Amino acid sequence: MAQMNLNDPTLKRALKAALGEAIQEQRELLREVFAEVLEDFALAEAIREGQQTKPATRAEVARVLQGKP
Q: Does residue 3 belong to any structural domain of this protein?
């Protein structure tokens, strides 16, 4: 089996074209994946911040959920 040269300009062009085509064809899937990743990062940050604060009471949580100050 022949060995491929990863520095071959033809191979690089073919890989770039294939990647570009895959991104165009799967745009919605890619958007969903990025959205999930961003949500995961935001949740992790919220958890880290929450670990630095005192626990909230049930009444405090209920008040916030009801939109009361």
A: no
